[in-house]
Amino acid sequence: MIRIDSVTKRYPDGTVAVDRLSLDIPDRAITVLVGPSGCGKTTTLRMINRMVEPSEGSILLDGRDIRQQPVNTLRRSMGYVIQNAGLFQHRTILDNIATVPRLLGWSKQKARDRAAELMARVGLDTSLAKRYPYQLSGGQQQRVGVARALAADPPVLLMDEPFSAVDPVVRKGLQDELLRIQDELGKTIVFVTHDIDEAVKLGTMVAVLRTGGRLAQFAPPAELLSAPADSFVEDFLGADRGIRRLSFFSAGSLELQTAPVVSVDADAATLAARAEAAPYLLVTDSDGRPLGWSEPDGLTAGAVDRDRLLDHGRPFAPATDSLRAALDGAVLSPTGWAVAVDGEGRVVGVVSQQVIGEAIRAAHTRVARDSAVKAAR
Amino acid sequence: MNGFFDLPSDLQYGYLGLVGLHLREGLIPVLAGLLIALPVAQLCVRFRWVYPPVLGLTTVLYSIPSLAFFVVLIDYFGQSETTVMVPLAIYSLVVLVPAIVDGVRSVPQDTLAAARAMGFGPVRRYLQVQLPIAVPAIIAGLRVATVSSLSLVSVGMLIGNQGALGNMLYSATTYNRPALAVNSVLTTAVLGVLADALLVLVRRLLTPWMPPTKGAAR
Fold first, then answer.
1. Which residues form the signal peptide (chain B) (predicted)?
2. How far apart are CA B91 and CA B64, in angstroms?
3. B23-61 in b/e burial notation, b at 16+ Cβ within 10 A?
4. How many domains does chain B have?
């Protein structure tokens, strides 16, 4: 565990970048430091590998003061990823990744083998190994940056706004990739960002810092969204935190209805029977994939006009998606009903906004009860 | 005896001999200048306040005519090649020091921060990161210094046959053979162009990592 113990950073001109900050950063989890510019989040990160020395307070790594070991030994035990990757432009991709193993005295061959292994792990084609950084896209460079940080298998990874300079689509890919890698490797990651959505998506724990380097709140993202500590945190979270919080509730418990679902080749009797069930019917193709909505009397057995169906909106997968995805599907659907599909995209049922609303209330009640129980203990 | 490459015997060398002498007198000073400029430039990068006075000093030294240097240096080295090469080495600093300083300073902050964070000490950082990235700027400086040094060697004829190809200029007037002067000037120019081309080639070989658009410059 990394323990930041009432650390202050004061610069010679009197500015205070970090003000009596205390944080216990859990092992094998992603801890995100988030806040507006000037909140000291990067300074805090840089104090962990002693790129910046604290004016007061101390930082402990597994109970030992980080100043007890030589600074370069400390740094080589912590991977470091920065915004523009900071790659060595004069070295090949493979040699960039092999940097820290080489510093640690590994043989050239062993370091390169390791680098090649990491390229695969971060999703880089090994044909890029002999290229130079200028030949790679921003997203690829950032992947190299992550691979380079992981090369010597350090227990700790420090990431300073690593995905801020790439476009949103690439950023989402990199974030998903980081979560996947973290699932496999279980590093202790400290991640700095100014993007609260990124913080909520990636963080196991999120520390919100305010200007002047003081801690506003330190909590898991779901708690941050449901119970912001003060108006600063609430403002920083933005307007739709209620909706975003639904990301943390699984859609798996929703009660799905199958009665309003009919196959495109259903016979007249089935259609007539289903017409009783709901004001709208969802038509699927013969494999069970959704085609669109229709009023029951607009359907003729054996002659469904696919072009006249209403759009079915974006389906959600109850097994993996959250209530947020389900609600989004219902809101976007012209009928107010969301379509649930399995992993192969086959319809497993439909659910109304009303049922989703009840599930949301139930989830809130459950959380409130749980935290009441926790508080009582 | 009047062929283009036939030289009067008082030059003491044949044509190729003079070319060899010229290269030696022109290139050794640049090499010496580089060896002096590297640590001086590093001092200037490390301690910013050192740079302006160093820059001023090299400029002042550059403005001293070589003849004035010769007058002083003859006392120590006689009418020798060394007397010719010392001023040339000093002149090369005016180009090399700023070239290296700018090159080392052009290394992106991100790259330096990454190097520090990965546990590079100052020496490693200089040798493995800053210097290699500064190579294009250093070679750009070397090209100017080399060509100018090769053309300045000729002035050595003033102290008695120490100007290599430049000595032919003196012979040209003495023996009234203008062809010797033409030969001297042309050969010096060709040596300059060849040395320059060689440095460009070295730069290409040392910097496969440069984007071709930037690398194709001249």
1. none
2. 9
3. bebbbbbbebbbebbbebbbebbeeeebbeebbeebeee
4. 1
Write out chain A residues lying below 8 Å of B127, CB-based. none
In angstroms, the CA A53 to CA A28 distance is: 25
Instruction: Report the C-alpha gap between A273 and A38 in whole angstroms.
Output: 64
Q: How far apart are CA A43 and CA A51, in angstroms?
A: 9
As given in the structure block, the two tokens for residue B74 are: 């003859």
| B66-77 vs B81-105: helix crossing angle, rounded to 10 | 120
Asked if the structure places residue A366 within a domain, the reply is no
Residue B189 placed within a domain: yes
- Where residue B172 sits, what CATH number does that domain have? 1.10.3720.10
The pLDDT of residue A30 is above 60: yes
What are the two backbone dihedrals, phi and then psi, of residue B82, each rounded to the nearest 5 degrees?
Answer: -55, -40
Residue where a domain stops, chosen among A248, A277, A294 = A248
Question: B109-132: per-residue pLDDT in tens?
Answer: 999 999 999 999 999 999 999 999
Residue A12 burial class via C-beta count within 10 angstroms: exposed 0-12, middle 13-18, buried 19 and up: exposed
Q: What is the pLDDT of residues A270-297, one digit of tens each?
A: 888 888 777 888 999 889 899 999 888 7
Does residue B120 belong to the interface with chain A, where contact is any CB pair within 8 Å?
Answer: yes
What is the C-alpha separation between B90 and B74, in angstroms, rounded? Answer: 16
CB proximity A90 to B under 8 Å: yes
Low-confidence ranges of chain B (pLDDT < 70): 1-2, 213-218
The amino acid at residue A39 is C
Kindly state the DSSP code that residue A159 receives in the 8-state scheme. E
**Which residues between 218 and 247 in chain A have a beta carbon less than 8 angstroms from any beta carbon of chain B?**
none
Query: Tell me, what's the pLDDT at A126?
Result: 92
A 116-155 residues with CB < 8 A to B: 132-134, 148
* Whether B206 contacts chain A with CB within 8 A: no
Question: Quick one: A30 and A158 in the same domain?
Answer: yes
pLDDT at residue B49, as a whole number? 94
Domain range for A54 is 2-248
